Amino acid sequence: MAEAPELSIVATIIDGGEELRAFLQSLMRFEDPPSLEIIVPYDATRPEVPALEQEFPDVNFLDLGRIDTIHPVSTEAGLHELYDRRRARGLAAARGRIIAILEDRGRPRPDWARQIVRLHAETGCPVVGGAIECREPASLLNWAFYVTDFGRYGLPFESGPAEWVSDVNVSYSRAALKEMRPLWTERYHEPILHGYLRKKGERLWLSAEMVVDHGRPPVSLGYLLAERFHWGRLFGHIRTMTIGGGERWRLILGSPLIPPLLWLRHGMTQARKGRGWRYLRALPHVVALTTAWTLGEVCGYVTRRP
User: Fold this and answer.
1) Which of 17, 130, 132, 201 is the most buried (most CB within 10 A)?
2) How far apart are CA 302 and CA 252, in angstroms?
3) What is the spatial distance between Cα 227 and Cα 208, in angstroms, rounded to a whole number?
4) What InterPro entries does this protein map onto (predicted)?
C-alpha cells in the first residue's frame, strides 16, 4: 500500500457539473503542496461525476451508489442528509495525517494546502478552519446570502482561537477524527464534533491565511428563502441533540430577538471589514434571509426534527 499522504481533502458536491470541474481545477493549481489525496464521494443522484474521472485521473471519485435518506432528496433536508453522509464516507476513506473538508462552491487559493500543514504544526489544534471570501462578481442577493452564512469568516480578521469554524473550509488532525468517529460514522455534523471538542477544553483555530473563495450560481429570492428556512430548521434540530430542555426553551422564547440582533451583528461585522455601504444596500435581502432562517431554526427547536 502506498504511503499515507500528509493531507486528505474530502470534497462535498453541492452544485456539481461545471462548478465541480472548476473546483477540481483549482486544486490542481496548488503551489508547493504537501503530499495529498483528493476524495470526491458521490452517489446515484450525481450521474455526471464519472465523466470527470478521465480529466482528473489523480482524484479518488468514491462511488457510494444509492443512498437511502430519511427525507426525499427533492427537499432541502434530504439534500443536506446526502451532503452529511457523503462527507462521512469520505472521512472514513481518508488516509492523511490531516483531513480537510471543502465543497465545490469554495475554491481554495494556491497556498491553501501548504498553509494547512503549517498551521496544524504551529498551533497544535485538532481543528483548523479558514477564511471564506465571497467570489466576485456577486449580485446583491448572492452577497446577502454570503453575509448571512459566512460573513464572520470574511477577511480581514485576526487569526486565533474561535468558537466557530465552518465546514466549508475546515481541517482536522487524524487523531481528533479517530477519537470522534462514533459521532460522524453515519453523518457528519460539524456543530456536534466541534461542540464535543470545546467541552473537552480543546481549541478551534480560525486562520486568515487558509482562504477559499466561495460563490454559488444565481438563484431567486424565493428559492433562497425556502433554503434558509429548511437549513435553519436542520441547524435547530442538530442543536437540540447537544443541549438540555431548559436551554432549548430559552432559545425558543428568545427567538423574536434573534433577527434584529443578527441584522445588527452582521452590519457591525461588515462595517469593520470596510463593507458597510454594501451591507446597507443588501439589508432588505439580509432581513428576509435571516428571518426565514430564524423561523426554521425555531421550528427545529420545537419539533426536534429536521
Assistant:
1) 130
2) 7
3) 28
4) Nucleotide-diphossugar_trans
Cα separation, 114 vs 116, in Å, equals 6
Query: Tell me: the pLDDT tens digits for 9-58?
Result: 999 999 999 999 999 999 999 999 999 999 999 999 999 999 999 999 99
For residue 181, CA distances in Å to 54, 88, 93 come to 33, 9, 12
User: pLDDT (tens digit, 9 = 90+) per residue, 241-299?
Assistant: 888 888 999 999 999 999 999 999 999 999 999 999 999 999 999 999 999 999 999 99
User: And the C-alpha cell for 51?
Assistant: 465523466
CATH of domain 7-214: 3.90.550.10
Which tens digits make up the pLDDT trace of 161-185?
A: 999 999 999 999 999 999 999 999 9
What is the rounded distance in angstroms from the CA atom of residue 75 to the CA atom of residue 72?
6
Assign 304 to helix, strand or coil.
Answer: coil
* Whether the predicted model's global pTM rises above the 0.85 cut: yes
- Delimit the domains of the chain by residue range: 7-214, 221-303
Pairing of strands 169-173, 98-103: antiparallel
E-strand spans in the chain? 7-12, 36-42, 59-63, 98-103, 106-108, 127-134, 160-162, 169-173, 204-214
Within 8 A by CB and 6+ apart from 137, the residues are: none
For residue 237, report the phi and psi dihedrals to the nearest 5 degrees. Answer: -60, -45
Three-class SS of residue 144?
Answer: helix
Closest CA to 12 of 70, 79, 78, 75: 79
Q: How far apart are CA 241 and CA 301, in angstroms?
A: 10
